[in-house]
């Protein structure tokens, strides 16, 4: 069969008839190199000018697009390494980053495109020997500074370095083909903590690391490598799968404190389930009905969401506050509690921007709540719109 050659354009703009087969692997224009070292449809491609300071990819032709691969420009201001923070040997954790001044909540530590992108399927399916050869070739193609940063990462082989440092990224879209491992060598110097002071977000392949609380000078900068709301035992297991025994302050705290933290995490999960059920008016799950729960207990009330926020803050989940703040803002608005609604909405806006950025789904709604809670759809939904209001419209 013959395949049409696909133009070097973003995927979504390609013709439906534009396909690739093993026999017809696309050659991108200079300064791209490749396809090289192909294994079936996966090949090494490289561009010394793409991404932050050069990019190599191990992927199918499908995932090459102008969109993903053009250089990142006009990024936000990052902190200065060696000035705002520095590298140091952290007992039991290898190298880590330490704040050299107070770093304020919302400051961007690093914003980077990847140095290496490897499609997830070959990472699993290409035989290890072949894979190592491809990975080494991909790293060899990087400009020397970037290669140096890549090789400074933990791991004995290039394969090992990918395993221990990569993030899951999706190349312009969320199709199964678009899942890649992304390596950001500077970000790789940030150690894990279960209650980190930084949070990262990925926008296409751009990786942004941001402070989620004020960080005093001398404190280590940390990210969580796993889902932070798992109980301690499960977190330890996941991190062992990552290849290390976690020694962050949460993982080595006394048993009683660890048990209290696990208890709070369970309370958070229960409360979230209850709040979501009450807000979506789904029927009571059988076990709750069986416990004789009454209709009156089932009304959403401000106390529930205030409690949720308090638990998140007590648990120091600074990188996951957007959702509880947004819920708290809405429910307080529903009860006509203007100051509280506005206060939570302001916090929700900040947290949404840190955690997701401008494309955060709830951002417009929360901004409207900050602007004028009385004109928001949720305003007094639970208590009737008027009660002495100016518009004389009574709902009950
Ligand atoms: C992405 S690297 C972080 C930077 C690394 N420390 C270095 O020297 O380049 C991940 C590795 O750092 C170490 N590490 C990170 N967080 C840790 C933690 N909380 N406890 C123990 N070791 C940790 C582990 O060896 C892990 O495989």
From TrEMBL:
Superkingdom of origin: Eukaryota
One Pfam family it belongs to: SET
Alphabetized Gene3D superfamilies for the sequence: SET domain
Iron keyword on record: no
Keyword Electron transport: no
Occurrences of domain SET (ranges): 81-226
Record-linked CDD domains: SET_SMYD (cd20071)
InterPro entries: SET_dom, SET_dom_sf, SET_domain_protein
UniProt keywords, alphabetically: Signal
UniProt-listed PANTHER family: SET DOMAIN-CONTAINING PROTEIN, SET DOMAIN-CONTAINING PROTEIN 5
Protein name: SET domain-containing protein
Lineage: Eukaryota, Fungi, Dikarya, Ascomycota, Pezizomycotina
């Amino acid at each position: 069969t013959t395949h049409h050659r696909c133009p070097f354009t973003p995927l979504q703009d390609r013709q439906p008839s534009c396909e690739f087969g093993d026999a017809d692997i696309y050659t991108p224009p200079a300064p791209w190199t490749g396809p090289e070292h192909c294994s079936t449809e996966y090949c090494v491609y490289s561009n010394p000018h793409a991404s932050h300071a050069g990019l190599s990819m191990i992927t199918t032709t499908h995932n090459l697009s102008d969109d993903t691969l053009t250089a990142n420009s006009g990024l936000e201001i990052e902190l200065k390494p060696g000035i705002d923070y520095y590298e140091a040997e952290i007992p039991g954790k290898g190298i880590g980053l330490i704040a050299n001044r107070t770093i304020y909540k919302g400051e961007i530590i690093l914003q980077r495109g990847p140095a290496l992108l490897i499609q997830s399927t070959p990472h699993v399916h290409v035989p290890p020997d072949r894979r190592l050869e491809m990975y080494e070739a991909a790293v060899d193609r990087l400009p020397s500074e970037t290669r140096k940063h890549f090789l400074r990462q933990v791991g004995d082989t290039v394969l090992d370095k990918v395993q221990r440092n990569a993030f899951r990224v999706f190349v312009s879209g969320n199709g199964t083909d678009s899942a890649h491992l992304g390596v950001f060598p500077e970000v790789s110097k940030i150690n894990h903590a279960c209650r980190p002071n930084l949070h990262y977000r990925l926008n296409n392949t751009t990786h942004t690391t941001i402070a989620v609380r004020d960080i005093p000078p001398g404190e280590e900068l940390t990210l969580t490598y796993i889902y932070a709301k798992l109980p301690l035992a499960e977190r330890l297991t996941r991190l062992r799968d990552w290849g290390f025994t976690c020694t962050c302050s949460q993982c080595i705290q006394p048993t009683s404190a660890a048990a209290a933290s696990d208890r709070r995490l369970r309370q958070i999960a229960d409360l979230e389930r209850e709040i979501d059920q009450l807000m979506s008016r789904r029927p009571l799950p059988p076990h709750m009905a069986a416990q004789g729960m009454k209709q009156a207990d089932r009304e959403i009330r401000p106390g529930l969401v205030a409690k949720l926020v308090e638990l998140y803050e007590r648990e120091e989940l600074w990188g996951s506050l957007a959702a509880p703040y947004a819920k708290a803002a809405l429910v307080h608005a529903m009860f006509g509690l203007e100051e509280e609604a506005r206060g939570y909405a302001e916090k929700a806006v900040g947290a949404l921007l840190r955690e997701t950025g401008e494309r955060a789904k709830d951002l417009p709604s929360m901004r409207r709540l900050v602007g004028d809670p009385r004109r928001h759809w949720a305003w007094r939904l639970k208590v009737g719109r008027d009660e002495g209001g100016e518009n004389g419209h009574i709902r009950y």
